[in-house]
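Support reply, case 0932

Customer input (verbatim):
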Amino acid sequence: MRFLPDGAVVAAGGGRTLLELAEHSGTPLRTVCGGVGNCTSCRVRIMAGELTPARTDHTRLGPLVAHGWRLACQHVPRASLTVERPPPTDL
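Our regenerated output:
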């Protein structure tokens, strides 16, 4: 798995979510809700590979799902992916 734009590469597996894998990469994603799918701060965009949206993605992200956005806390990758982190914010 590759995280853009920082280029961090992490081996997927062990039943870890994208959120946990980002933490393991040394460049964690922001999360306000602690990874339960309520805040959308851990959203990432799938740039390469396939990741079927979860119901929570549709509920929380709405039309962004059609553009590849997913909640990192809701997905355990089963294949190689390249994901883009959202731009940093000062929130």
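We compared this against your earlier run and they match. Two observations from our side: The two ends are 27 Å apart (CA to CA). The chain has a mean pLDDT of 87. Please reopen the case if you see a mismatch on your end.
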